[in-house]
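Why does this matter for the project? Reviewers at the last site visit asked to see concrete outputs rather than summary tables. In response, this paragraph embeds two records directly. Each consists of the residue sequence and, immediately after it, the corresponding structure tokens. Nothing has been edited or filtered.
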Amino acid sequence: MNTLRELVLMLSTFMWIGAGTWIITALIASDTSISGDQAAEMAPSTSYFVFGIGVAVFILVTVFWKKKKEP
């Protein structure tokens, strides 16, 4: 964890994994006996945006932010 690049990668990874888990939990809850209102409370609509932003940041950093080569 020496570079800013690695820190951004770790944070974006935690962000999209967390939001994805949140979305999956809500989808499972909506298919079970939990009422729709409770499932809607479990996964607010912003979790989809957080998931998308996390994945986008992760992909952009891995593709475009090249590591500096060690001399």
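We now turn to the second protein, recorded in exactly the same manner.
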Amino acid sequence: MAQTSVLLALPAEIRNQIAEYIFHREPGTTLLPPHKSPLAFASTCRQLYFEFYALARSATVFTMQWPHGRVFVPRIIWAILRERHMDRLTKICIVHDGVQPYLSLPTLYSMMQFYQPYQTSKLWEARSDLVHGRLLFVGRRQGPDQAARQVSLFIGYSFREAEQYVAVCEQIGQEQYADILLARRRDCSCVTPFSDMSDEQVRNELDYLRVQYPIFDDVEHVFQPHVDEIRARCSQAS
């Protein structure tokens, strides 16, 4: 006699709540292996596939192999945006693991402006949206009654730096530089360890954080303590 699944015996509403809980992934966390992905759960049996495949597919992060050798990122992004049968794509997350340490949202936005296929095409418009830690690609409307398609792009050393961009900016504003660089060594395999770096190299990496994660809001709150310190020192010297 076949054993009845406890999950399938539950009411549909409770099954839906369980599935939503299982499929939820906190932004910035590493990916689950394929055999533990939402799609793997939905493929367990025919009934789960019928009930949850669409939800599982939208909750699954699909990875692509990073090409060997030197990579021109705008070309990869453009190929993904122009790919057929990807009209449901809403998010691209580039995690370079330290392979391209100078790649950032501001840099990538500037690169896109000079990329020839993007310049000549009217299909997509790239917008800098650092307030939400992303580049936003807005597609051309396909019809008067259709909303413009939008694809968000995130980028960083790790999923944490890419998907929690705003939180990293706040850390920089609070001068928690050590936490950021130590987290890189914990999460990334292609980052030079501190034992192999000179003090100058560490300072250069710290300095470049301001380019990768510019402070974009509440500048007065971030810098006023430093202004107060400067004025206090000037008063003592006079």
